[in-house]
Design a protein that fits this description.
102 residues, alpha+beta, 5 helices, YlxQ family RNA-binding protein, ribosomal protein, Ribosomal_eL30-like, Ribosomal_eL30-like_sf
Length: 102
C-alpha cells in the first residue's frame, strides 16, 4: 500500500519532467548537485548499486532501495530502470516522507 503511493507520486513527478532515469545520468545529477533524492531498484547489480550508493553518500544525497527495475520503469512510464533521481525539492521531500514512514 505504501509503495503504491510512492509509485503514484513518482509517476506524477515523471510527467512533470522532474525525474532523471538511468545509472550514468543519475550519477551525473548527483555529482552536479541537482539530485535531491535517488531511488535504486533492489535488483540492481552489485556494481551499479555500490556506485550509486557511494556517490549519494559522498555528496550527501538521500537514497532509498525500493521495488525492482520493472516497478521503477512502470511508475515512470518507461521500460525497466535501475536508478531514478528526483530533481525537484518538493517531490523529493514528499517521497522522502512517504519512504521514511515504513
Amino acid at each position: 500500500m505504501m509503495n503504491q503511493a510512492v509509485f503514484n507520486l513518482l509517476g506524477i513527478a515523471a510527467r512533470a519532467r522532474k525525474v532523471i532515469s538511468g545509472e550514468e545520468l543519475v550519477v551525473k545529477e548527483v555529482r552536479n548537485g541537482n539530485a535531491k533524492l535517488v531511488l535504486l531498484a533492489n535488483d540492481a547489480s552489485k556494481n551499479s548499486g555500490k556506485k550509486i550508493q557511494d556517490k549519494c553518500t559522498y555528496y550527501n544525497v538521500e537514497y532509498h532501495v525500493i521495488g525492482d527495475r520493472y516497478d521503477l520503469g512502470h511508475a515512470t512510464g518507461k521500460e525497466a530502470r535501475v536508478a531514478l533521481a528526483i530533481t525537484d525539492k518538493g517531490f523529493a521531500s514528499k517521497l522522502s516522507s512517504l519512504l521514511n514512514e515504513k
